[in-house]
Amino acid sequence: MTVERTSATPSPHVQEKRRRRRAEILHAALRTFRAKGYHGTTLDDIADQLGVRKTALYHYFPDKEAILYACHRESLTELSRILKGAHALDSAPEQLAYVIREHVRVMIDTLEGSPLAFEVTALSPERQRGVIAARDRYERALRTMIEDGIAAAEFRAVDAKIAVFAILGAINWIARWYSPEGSLRAPELGGQFADHLLGGLTCR
Question: Most exposed of 46, 73, 162, 168 (fewest Cβ within 10 Å)?
Answer without folding.
Answer: 162
